[in-house]
Amino acid sequence: MELEALIVEFNRVRDELIEAISSVPPGLRDEAFVGDWDVKDIVAHTVGWDYTNIEALPDFRSGRLPAFFARYDADWATINAGLVARYRLADWDASLATLRDSQGAFVDAMRRLRDDTDLDTVAMWGGRRITLRGMMGAVSRDESEHVAQVRAFLSKRAHW
Questions:
Q1: Domain residue ranges in the chain
Q2: Smallest Cα–Cα separation from 142: which of 58, 79, 93?
Q3: Over the stretch 42-80, which tens digit does the pLDDT of each residue have?
Q4: 16 CB-side CA count, 13 A
Q5: What's phi and psi for 38, nearest 5 deg?
Q6: Could you identify which of 21, 47, 92, 134 might form a hypothetical disulfide with 87, taking C-beta atoms 3.0 to 4.6 angstroms apart as the criterion?
Q7: Predicted model pTM
């Protein structure tokens, strides 16, 4: 049941993100507001991390450090840039469909984990404990931050 609670929280935050990005008017979708990222870049980044985390699930379950940790740099900048380059789509409707598809794929992968999966199996990274539960928390925090960024962008633009 703990696993299902993590999935429910993931879906709640993702739905908030989809609602926020869906409210960005067409004329603002290519305007950067998170560094040099626009809303399409946030979508691509999110899709990319869904698939990255799906690939990492076997490592999390077995207590191995997922391979993407070997490519860490400040704020995951290189990985994020690669994910945006790979998953960014010019077509808005296709972007949203891809985001929903990656959400479904991630949830399906999580639900395929056995009920007895230990969410707190530890891999160590630079003295830090890395767990599946922690990864899910990081995903929710990252996406909540993007919700706040989109809302702040829209609020600021509404006053111009």
A1: 2-158
A2: 79
A3: 999 999 999 999 999 999 888 899 999 999 998 899 999
A4: 17
A5: -105, -175
A6: 47
A7: 0.94
Residue 3 token pair: 């696993």
Identify the burial level of 67 via C-beta atoms within 10 angstroms of its C-beta, where 0-12 means exposed, 13-18 middle and 19 or more buried: exposed
Structure tokens at 70: 């070997």
The answer as to CATH 1.20.120.450 being correct for domain 2-158 is: yes
Can you tell me the distance from the alpha carbon of 46 to that of 72, in angstroms, rounded to the nearest whole number? 17
CB 25 within 8 A of CB 156: no
Q: Which residue has the tokens 């709640």?
A: 12
Helix (H) or strand (E) segment spanning residue 121: none
* Residue 102 and residue 51 in contact, taking contact as beta carbons nearer than 8 Å: yes
